[in-house]
Amino acid sequence: MNYILKRSTRARTMRLIVYPDSSVVVTAPRFFGLQSIERFVMKHSEWVNRKVAETSKHNVIRVARKDIAMLKERSLAYARARCANFAAAYGLKFRKISIRAQKSRWGSCSRSGNLSFNYKIAVLPTHTADYIIVHELCHLREMNHSKKFWDLVAQEIPNHRQIRKELRNIAIVYY
Ligand SMILES: [Zn+2]
């Protein structure tokens, strides 16, 4: 098994992490012998292999931290253009668009008609970014995830089911 060994002066016990890009990192206290580290890794090899198999299905998108400010601008421009486009198609009106840095949400829609999107939509394949935009826009009319809501989404994004699956398999990794 391939793994990256990190020595830590602060760690008191060994730690094993499988990242979304399938890399395996073992953090060990500074003076732990290689043999006990190997033993520790072997002991957890089944779990590691399972995790690696899971994460290798991911579509990994790498984002440089230094690009985040640029991505925020780009995502705002994209969201403005695409919201205008889809809002016209649906005959919907929205108020303000804002960009947020959220950990796990792609977007949201407030009752007062404001839309917000995660800046990470700027690194997504455009068909997935468009789905997110349509999803939030449709909440302007249907503030729920009812059948009516999904029918509305399907008017512009007929394959939304498949796109949602794609989206779940996207892992964003920072460097
Ligand atoms: Zn929703």
Automatic annotation (TrEMBL):
UniProt xrefs under Pfam families: YgjP-like (PF01863)
Residue ranges the record marks as coiled coil: none
Sequence ranges assigned to domain YgjP-like metallopeptidase in this UniProt record: 12-58, 69-169
Cross-referenced InterPro entries: UTP_pyrophosphatase-like, YgjP-like_metallopeptidase
PANTHER family with a match to the protein in the record: UNCHARACTERIZED PROTEIN YGJP, UTP PYROPHOSPHATASE
Name of this protein: YgjP-like metallopeptidase domain-containing protein
Species of the source: Candidatus Kaiserbacteria bacterium RIFCSPHIGHO2_01_FULL_53_29
